[in-house]
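User: Please go through the entry that follows and flag anything odd:
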Amino acid sequence: MDYLAQVTSPATIFLELWKIIQEITTSNLTNATPPQEAFSRSVKKILELDDAVTAYDNLRSVLLSIQKLRLVSERNGQIIAVMQCIDEIFLRIHPRSVTLSSSVARRPNIPEWLKLHRSRRFDRGFYEEIDGFRLIPRGPLMRHERHALDSGGTNLPDCFSAVGVSSSIMEHSGQKITVIQKVVGTDQLRGVTLGSQTGKELILFVPVAEDSGDIEISHQVRNKKDFLTFDLNKSVNVVDRMVGAIQKVEVIDIAIAPEFTISEENADNFATRLASIKTNKPRITVCGSGNTTGKQDGLPLNEARVINASGHTLWRQQKILQSGLSVELAKKLKIFGTSGFAFEDNASATQINIVDIEGLGRCAILICQDLKTNPLAFNLVTQFQPDWIFVPILDSGADIGRWAHTDCVELSKKSKSRFLIACSMSFGLRLDPSSSPVFGLGMGPYDDGGKGLGRLVKPVFANKFNAPDATIKWGDGTWQQTTITAI
C-alpha cells in the first residue's frame, strides 16, 4: 500500500468523529454517558486488526449501531469512547512512548495500519489529513501532556493523550497562513543527535549585537510613510562572535541569537564554519533572524534559520507580522527623521513551520511581533502544544514583565511549552549606556503539574557578554517564579 496516499483506517474514523463531536456544546460533552467496559473492549479488539480497511469497516459498523441509540448522552458517550480507544492505541507510536526505556515497559504490538501512519508522519509531518484537519501526535512530545481538566472544565483536545487535531491553514487577522509540518530524525548529518539529559537542556543565548552601534538602522519614506531597515553593522563579524561564544561552552543543546542579527548571507557563512568545527557544537542553533538575500514584492523577508551541528539547515521561518517604532521611541533610540510611526521594511510571510525533532520535541518560531498574531499564536499553541517556542526579538531587553514575557505567559496558560526569548543588547544600551540589558529569558509553562513549578522564569544579563554566563539549564534549581498579577 502507498503510505503517501490517504489511508482509510481508524485514523480516518477519528477525524470523521472529530468533525462531529467538536460541534456539540461543552455541557453535552461533559454530560456524555460513558459506555460499559465491554463496549470499549470490543472497539479495542477491532483496533488490533492489521488490515486498515477491515478495521475501518468494523468501526463503521459500530458507529451505525451508535446512531440508533435514543439518548443523545449515550451517543456522545460512545463516540468519545471510540475516539479514546483510537487515542490509546496511537500512544504505542507516540514519541513519549518511543523514548521509554525497554527496561521500564514492554513494547506492545503495533498493527500494520498503525505502522503505516507512523511512516506517513515521518514523510509528511502528520499521521493523516481530511478536509484540512490533520491527525498529529498530541504535544508536548517529550513531557507529559496537559491533564484532562487543566482548562478548568471540559475541553475536547484535553480529552486525548496521544493524538490531537490541527489545521492545515491558520489565520492572522483574516490572512491565510499555511502550516508546514516536518519531522527531523536523529542522524548526525541531516538530523539532530540525541541529548544527554532530556528535560535538563542547556541553552546558550548569544546577543551578537553587544554594543549600541551594532545594529544599523536606515530610514526612508515611501507612499508618505516612514520605513526602517534593521541590519547588523558591517564592522561586526557575526560568524566569529557566534563561533567564539559556542566554543566556550560544552554540551549545548540549543543556541539562540536575536532578531536582525544574522542575515541569510551570514547564516550561510556560519553554517559553513560550524561544519568545520569538531567539538562544542550545539545540537541546534536558532540563527536569530535577519534579512534575506532574495526579495518578495520588492522587499526582503525577516528570516530565522535553524541549523544542526553539521551545519545543515533544518528549516527557515519568516516573520509574519511586521512591527515598528513610534516617533517618541525612535527619538529615544537616536533614530531621527521620522515624522510618524515607522514601519519595519520587510515583506510578510504566509507560512508557519511546526517541526518535530526526535529526542528534543516539537518546535516553533515566533519572531518578535509574531507573538501577537491573532488568532495564529493562540491556535498554534493550543493545537500543537509545542515543547519549545523560540522568540528572537529586537527590543531594549527581554526583562521579566516586559511585553514579550507577558505575551508568553498568556500563551503558556494553554500549553506546557517552554519559551526562549533572545534579544540583542544594542537598543538597551542606546536608551541607557550604563544599563545591563536582559538579553535572554527562559520561561516554563504557567502550570507544570500543580507541584509549585509553574511560571518558572530565568533572565540572562551581563554588563558585557560572557558566554559561560549566558547559559541556562532547565531544572538546575536557580529559577524564579513569575509574579504578574494583571496582564
Observations:
- Confidence is low (pLDDT under 50) at residues 1-5.
- Residues 3 and 119 are 7 Å apart (CA to CA).
- The longest strand covers residues 175-184.
- The chain is about 30% helix and 25% strand.
